Amino acid sequence: MARRPFKLNAPVVREPVLHKQVADVLRMELGPPGRISHHGVCWWSVDMANYGGVAPGLRTARGCIAGVPDMQVLFLGLAFFIELKAEDGILSDAQQSVATDICLGGARYGVARNAEEVLVLLDTWEIPRSKRVHLQHAR
Predict the structure, then answer these.
(1) Is the pLDDT assigned to residue 55 strictly greater than 70?
(2) How far is 93 from 19, CA to CA, in rounded Å?
(3) Running DSSP on this structure, what letter comes out for residue 77?
(4) At what angle do helices 15-29 and 115-124 cross, to 10 degrees?
(5) Separation between Cα atoms, residue 72 and residue 33, nearest integer Å
(6) Residue 96 CB: number of other CB atoms within 10 A?
(7) Can you give the pLDDT at residue 54?
(8) Is 125 in contact with 41 (CB distance < 8 Å)?
(9) Which residues are CB-neighbours of 97 under 8 A, at least 6 positions away?
(10) 63 φ, ψ to 5°?
(11) CA distance 93 to 80
């Protein structure tokens, strides 16, 4: 009986780990979260994990909604939103709805699956960064 070849698969980086990796890169590229960089860029992260919470309705009563993107960046009076997804992750219906509303509202929205894709978004949006982290693949 012939054996099937053994195939190694890299593990999928889950979103909490990805979120920390991206935050570390943004600290190097833009500066501390919630602080204006010398280029005039401010960023922060939102944690809406366990959206339901222990007191149903408490978050929604305060205006919190499902689907809010993970990272926000402000530059020159413009808002940029980044949703982080694992390699095998897909946008939920709530995330798709919020993404549509963000774009209709005139802001920018992107999905990234790793820190390099976040840097590509920043470069595409012409958000200045320190360029301490170099992209592996030419785009």
Answers:
(1) no
(2) 21
(3) T
(4) 50
(5) 10
(6) 13
(7) 63
(8) no
(9) 67
(10) 95, 5
(11) 20
Q: Where are the alpha helices (DSSP H) in 39-90?
A: 58-61
Distance of alpha carbon 125 from alpha carbon 139, whole angstroms: 14
Tokens for 16, please give them: 């909490």
Q: Are 123 and 133 in contact (CB under 8 A)?
A: no
Q: How many whole angstroms separate alpha carbon 34 and alpha carbon 116? A: 21
The ranges assigned to domains in the chain are 36-47+58-130
The residue among 110, 135, 107 whose CA lies nearest residue 121 is 110
Give me the half-sphere count of Cα atoms (radius 13 Å) on the Cβ side of residue 126. 2
The residue among 64, 75, 72 whose CA lies nearest residue 23 is: 72
Q: For residue range 85-135, list pLDDT tens digits in order.
A: 998 999 999 999 999 999 999 999 999 999 999 999 999 999 999 999 988
**How do residues 10-21 score in pLDDT, each as one tens digit?**
777 788 889 999
Q: Which class is 36-47+58-130 in CATH? A: alpha beta
Provide the pairing of β-strand 108-112 with 41-45: unpaired
Distance of alpha carbon 135 from alpha carbon 137, whole angstroms:
6
Query: Structure tokens of 69?
Result: 């993107």
